[in-house]
Amino acid sequence: MTSPVKAYRAAILHSIDDPAVVGVEQSYEYFEDGLLVINNGLVAKVGHAADLLPTLKGVEITEYRDALITPGFIDTHIHYPQTGMIASYGEQLLDWLNTYTFPTEQQFADKAHAAEVAGIFLKELLRNGTTTALVFGSVHKQSVDAFFEAAEALNLRMIAGKVLMDRNAPDYLTDTPESGYADSKELIERWHGKGRLHYAVTPRFAPTSTPEQLTLAGKLLGEYPHLYMHTHLSENRKEIEWVKALFPERKSYLDVYDHYKLIGARSVFAHGVHLCDGECKRLAETGSAVAFCPTSNLFLGSGLFDLNKLEEHGVRVGLGTDVGAGTSFSQLQSLNEAYKVMQLQGKKLDPFKSLYLATLGGANALYLDDKLGNFLPGKDADFVVLDYNATPLISYRMQQAKTLEERLFALTMLGDDRAIKQTFAAGQSVHCRD
Ligand code: GUN
Ligand code: ZN
Question: Which CATH architecture has domain 5-72+374-432?
């Protein structure tokens, strides 16, 4: 019988805490010649190769040269049905939804179509080193079945849910409070907690759900343990005005969700570009999380996310691509744009903070930091091998780099899917570039 123990030798880097809390130097561990030891799909040990090799008699060791192993990336907000409409021209949020998104999502009534796109989507995530994502389906329950079936076959840790949307959308794409509730319940019973899969109750955003539907969404959250709640919040100025007009009795956009019992641990709000202090405070005290989606915020002209403000309030923040409003599946590219979003506000984004956002910070936002985000023993063996020679330019830039910080920063600026040499989920190779 082959041993369930395997080891991977390369430079290894992982976050161990938030740089904003412990300072940059205390936030990571780095092993220049490191060894990651995996047993039965879980991390057994990480450390210096020189220390660990003598303890590993007879274990198969895979060695990578000019490579960096990090934990798999975590995408805290993405829409799988929007894969085929990524990079659609010229609109801001509300017109973009009507022009491109709704017609595209209509196609997911067809399970075969949904299965095809789910396969393309997951492959693209893995090609980009993303091993866990919080994913919007479409309004059709079969879209979520197709997604979970594909994720289960690859033994991925994934979170997804059926969109709830019973107004302000085309008839072909709406459910009702009762059907949305019943379909979600059926999906929760079928998928939530199965293997590495989790369910997210997914009202699209406040304008597309009636008070009755939001009430039933809140009811669902109370009926099962550890469900996620996944929606959009304060992304675009016109959207915020619309929410005010639809819910005049609520004191803020977040207060709509609060009123319907949709906020708390495992509630993840995409965007939060235009939040007031009161909303930040409430997000922090309820343990809710916000997904920072830089490529989307720039692409749709939504605005500049104030990471420091949310951080100062103690809000959990993860990194999202928000494909198809986001323009890349790559978290390296998201970090590239995140850096520029900060620069435009006269602020900085340290490369180790970037690493944290894409890995342990995402795990923390999703309350999965006991399972994901770094290489502490017992966590899922979800990891990526980054190639320092991915392109001629990256290779040349790396030769000039004098420090780890410089290499990491250049990788986040120049890297994309080409920099992902291999991706592992639960210890199994799920993408091999070459
Ligand atoms: N708000 C409501 N629906 C959507 C969506 O599909 N994408 C984005 N970016 N924002 C939304
Ligand atoms: Zn979105």
Answer: Roll (2.30)
